[in-house]
Amino acid sequence: MTETKINAGQYIQHHLEHLTLNLKTFTLGEGGGFWTLNLDTMIISIIIGIVVFGSMWLAAKQMTAVPGRLQNFVEMIVEYVDKTVYEISHQKSTFIPSLALTIFLWIFFMNAVDLLPVDFFPRILGVFGVPYFKSVPTADPNATFAMSLSVFVLIIFFNIKAKKVGFLKEMLTFPFGPYLFPVNFVFRVIEECVKPLSLALRLFGNMFAGELIFILIAIMPWWIQWPPGAIWAIFHILIITLQAFLFMMLTIIYLSMAHDTH
Questions:
Q1: Residue 30 pLDDT
Q2: What whole-number distance in Å separates Cα of residue 151 and Cα of residue 247?
Q3: Where exactly are the structural domains of the chain?
Q4: Residue 7 catalytic?
Q5: CA dihedral sign, ordered 208, 209, 215, 218
Q6: End-to-end C-alpha distance for the chain, whole angstroms
Q7: Which residue among 55, 93, 202, 256 is the active-site one?
Q8: Residue-level pLDDT at 3
Q9: Active site includes 202?
Q10: How far is CA 77 from each of CA 14, 74, 101, 102, rounded to the nearest angstrom?
Q11: Beta carbons of 207 and 114 less than 8 angstroms apart
Q12: I want to staple 81 with a disulfide (CB 3.0 to 4.6 A). Which of 27, 101, 189, 231 is the partner?
């Protein structure tokens, strides 16, 4: 499918379709449902993870007294995240800083795919007969909810690990005291469930909107695309950085709260 044979609406719809795999029939194509896997989201996410964290591993393996550019960059990021985690959490743990670093870098570079031309991957893969390819993983709610639900599981785990039986007592007695324990329990369940929901929807909403604006710019005549495209790309750099930072910061805060008692 080429953009010369379709109208603007079809072009937009085509770029919003995922390359999917039906796990029941193992067939490729478009579609949805529980047994459908978005291959494009998984492929890009895995490749970015391998490249980014492989580069950091390589920098760690080749550390020298006189650091190069890659080592300087890695050390700067690691030190900044460590300092941020300590200022918020004060927990003597290597897990939370490592998790925060992973979240920030992975989400940032997944977001950054949005800065590539919208036809970059579809045109290349179209030569090999791939009908659809949506290249921004964080514009897929399946990816953002997978990350946020992983954080949610960690929140519950650290609550139980740090407070043990006190976690249940906290759910039943805070904030209105033991006599209103049903209300306390309902409020706490809502509070905990809102955390992954807000994490996932905030990231997905911002990235989906950004991707859609790039697609709308792409259907303009080629001679008028460059000014709005350049302006939006520069502004979008702030968005992709801010969304990665917010996801990281909220994760640190939620895990810090899980360690604290009221």
A1: 55
A2: 10
A3: 20-133+140-259
A4: no
A5: negative
A6: 58
A7: 202
A8: 42
A9: yes
A10: 37, 5, 8, 11
A11: yes
A12: 101
